[in-house]
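Figure 6 in text form: structure in, sequence out.
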């Protein structure tokens, strides 16, 4: 689980990110990102009912993406707000496929460093 300080939790912050942030997408997810005015990066995962009507399925895929973000968190450049919006294509994919997909998006956004 992500540490509390690395979570993007407040609705007003998420709405600001969607209003002013940039986005990159692939078949599995949409990455919405933008600069924040603090020295840490905050992350969130969103899976709406369009992904699945079954909450168990949505929560499972969100847990997988959160674990991937926790893995990448030390390599994410400080000062960004990042939202991962899950697409229906992510359902049934392996953890490794999700991880590779998200890593590619983070590198394209130039948020992930080595």
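Output sequence:
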């Amino acid at each position: 689980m992500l540490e509390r300080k690395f979570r993007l939790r407040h609705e007003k912050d998420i709405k600001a990110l969607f209003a002013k942030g940039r986005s990159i997408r692939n078949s599995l997810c949409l990455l919405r990102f933008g600069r924040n005015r603090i020295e840490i990066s905050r992350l969130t995962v969103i899976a709406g009912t369009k992904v699945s009507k079954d909450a168990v399925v949505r929560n499972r895929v969100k847990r997988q993406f959160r674990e991937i973000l926790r893995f990448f968190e030390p390599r994410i450049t400080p000062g960004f707000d990042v939202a991962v919006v899950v697409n229906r294509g992510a359902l049934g994919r392996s953890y490794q496929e999700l991880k590779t997909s998200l890593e590619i998006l983070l590198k394209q956004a130039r948020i992930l460093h080595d």
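Caption detail: The longest helix spans residues 55-72.
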